[in-house]
Structures are given as C-alpha cells and as structure tokens.
Amino acid sequence: MMHEKNAKFIVLCLMLTQCCLSPAATADSSFEDNDFAEFEDFDSDDDFVEVQQSNVGPQLSTAEEIPTLTEKGLKRDHSILEDDDDDGIVEDEDEFFKDEEEFEGFDSPDKDDEDLDQKTEPKLTVAKIPMHFRTHWDSYWMEMLMLAGLMVYFINFFAGKAKNANLANRWFNTHRALLDDNFVLVGDDGKMDNEKNGLIKESESLYTLWCSGRTCCEGMLVELKMIKRQDVVSLMAGLMRPQQDQIHIKIDLTRGVMDTFVFFVGTKRTVTKVFKEYSDLSKYCTQVSKPEIRYNVPNGLSVLSEIPEATAAILENRVIITLTKYQQYIDYLHISDQFSGPVQQEDANTLKQPDTKPILWAGFNLPREGNMEAVKPLFILIFYLMERLKTYRMSKEGKQKAERNRLRVEEEFLKSTHAARAEAAAQRREEKRKQEKERVMAEDDPEKQRRWEMKEQKRQAKKKAPKMKRLAVKSL
C-alpha cells in the first residue's frame, strides 16, 4: 500500500516535469519519449554545456546548432586547461577579451557596431539654415549710400584742402614784392632762425603771415580765412548763407604815433555787429546818420565816429575813391587809440580799467575767381593810412573833446566800481591794523600795549557814535 502511494507520487512529479519540459522535448527529436530520458542523456559531466541566448546575437532555433556550439565550447575549455598547465605560454589578449563566456554581460564593441550597422543605419539630414546675406544688390542700398557719402566726403576734403592752399599761395606770391618793400622781415614764425619764410598753415582753412620791421608800427599780422571747402557740412550751410574768403590785417601801431580818436567804417551788417562787441566803439563812438552825404562814402557803408574832425581827415578824397571803386571787396576799416578787445562782462572784483593800445585793423573780401591782383590796391591803402596817421594832428578843440570823452569813460568806470573799491580799501585798512596789533603785542612793553588798546577803544567808540551835522548859527 505504501509502495503504491509512492509510485503515484512519482508519476505525478514526472508528469509535471514533462509538462514543463515539453517545449525542449518537442524541439529535439533525439530525446527518447520516456520518463527518465532527461536523466539518461546527461550522465556524463563532459557532455553538459549551458547555452545562453545573447541579447545581441541571433537566437538558435534548431537543435542542430547546439552540438556545434558545444564542440566549440569544449575545444575552448580544453585549450584553457592546456594553457593553465603550460606556464610558458601566454594567451593572446585580443582572443581573451573576445571570449563571450569569460565576461558575462560584456558586449564586444566590434560585434555591437556591426549589429547596430545592420539593424539601424544612421540617416544624415542637413538642416535648412536661412541665408543671412541677401543675393540682390538692391538689398544693400543703405550700405552703398553710406559708402558713397564717405567717398564724397574724402574727395571733397582733399579737393577743398588743395584749393584753399592754392588760393593762399597765389595771394602771397602776388603781394610778396609789396610786403618786402614795406617790411624788413616777412613771414616770421617766432623762431630764432627763420626756417620757412612764408605763410604759416594754422588749419586747412586758416593761414597766417607775420611781418615786422617798419616805422610807426610794431608788427602786422595777416590772416587768410578761407571758406571751409574741406568740410561738406560747411559747404551745405554756405548754400543757405553765402560766405566769402576774407583777409584780416591787424597792425599794432606804436604809442604816440596817432592822435586820440576812434573811427570805424564798414558794411551795415558788420557795423551793427562790432558796435556791440568792442568796448572802444560802444564807449566812444556814435553812428553817423547819412554818411554818404556828410563824408561821401558809397551807399551800403556805415560810419562810427568819435571826433567828426578826425573822421573827415581820414575819409579824404583818395580814400573815398578807393572805397567807391573797390566797395565789393571792403568789409571794414577800424582805427582806434583805445582798443581793449571785446566788451568784458561786469565783474565787481575788477578795480582797474583794461589796458588799451592803438591799432589799425582792416578786413577785405577776396575775389571769388581767385584774381588776387584785384585786391592789391586795398593793401596799398593800408600803408597809405599808416603814413596818414603818423602825420595827421587834430585841432585844439578836437583834442579837448577827445580828452573829455576819456575822462567821462573813466568816471563811469569809477562809479561802477565804487562799492568794490570801498570794500577793497576797508580790507586793506583792516589788514594794516591787524599787522600793527601783532607788532605791538610782540614787544615786551606793557605801557605801549595799554596805550594802543586805549587808542583802539576810542576809535571803536567814535565809529559807533551817531553822526551829527554841525550847523553854524549867526549871532544877532
């Protein structure tokens, strides 16, 4: 009874084992269909080989491939055993790392690359990048406009610079002989050895020339102020407000050469401008009404005069003829013995009148066509006026009037600076008293110090006392 129960239990276990191993049994037709076939086939340890499926390699679907792998595995194991027995032979490293059974879970890089290449080939896609630069020339109109503007600016710069230099040299060459006849030194550059005897270039539109070595004057400065032809902006502004090349002549006369008077003649626009800018004209001169009738000056010119007698002497027949003939080139003529520069702003600390000097200034317009011979007679007029000022003397009445004008200007200045001068005088007295006190206190004489203190107290009491006016009363 006991044996029957054991037999049934063994049969059930075998049936369950057969159900679990049925796929392997159906795949291999060489196994026999009995209950103990699985134990009979694996009696020898050398015939057992565990076959693992690789995640990457192909799966074995037939039973014929198992013996082949088994034989290879046995041969490899046998070679390893032989290598272990032989100490003098070293296994190849490449073969060692290619062994799949030695490193479980280690994927061969060559095999993986081949499998990946076979399974999925990478597809290269070129990204569509938008073009940053346009292909049409009309798309660069802003850049082309800027380049064209720069080209025009540089071309105009070099052309205007060359033209101004050409006009200045032409003027100098035309007047060189006249200047050499009237001055010993022409073209002084302020150095001990005059290296460059000619015009001095201050800028692209300004040239200067200094001349010295003549009686009745300390020197003459000639300034050639050209139109800024090298500047496109100035040329554009000149279209709305026309400009002209000008020459300014500034002569510092020797003191005592000319009489005391102030005179100015020029265009109406220039007269209106300088009358407000220069202190000698605003303080001493008045504008002459109808100068074309009184002094026969041409229409379009105005006259500022201090002494009518001196104005009539300057505007004589020769000068009037020259002004009439060359009126288009004349800008102004300025003669003064009280020239002190532009009008200074009122300053309370100014306690002294500005220094004055006698001058002869002139401004002429240069011809537009560049014919410098046309303005040469005006330069001769300047030298004539210098000789005229040296020899002319006013009458007694004219000198007295000029003296009264200068006293009036001085009184006006003293009145305007009275408060400042009083404050400065009080400050000087206080400083003097402070120095005296320090000197007395430094001495070792108590009696002298006491007397000085009593004197100071009396002075302070007198200063604080109310001021009373004394009246004289006649006795009956």
Automatic annotation (TrEMBL):
Molecular functions per Gene Ontology: calcium ion binding
Composition bias, Basic residues: 460-476
Keyword set, alphabetical order: Membrane, Signal, Transmembrane, Transmembrane helix
Pfam families reported for this sequence: CCDC47 (PF07946)
GO biological process: endoplasmic reticulum calcium ion homeostasis
PANTHER family in the cross-refs: ADIPOCYTE-SPECIFIC PROTEIN 4-RELATED, PAT COMPLEX SUBUNIT CCDC47
Recorded family membership: Belongs to the CCDC47 family.
The name this protein goes by in its record: PAT complex subunit CCDC47
Gene that produces this protein: LOC119633278
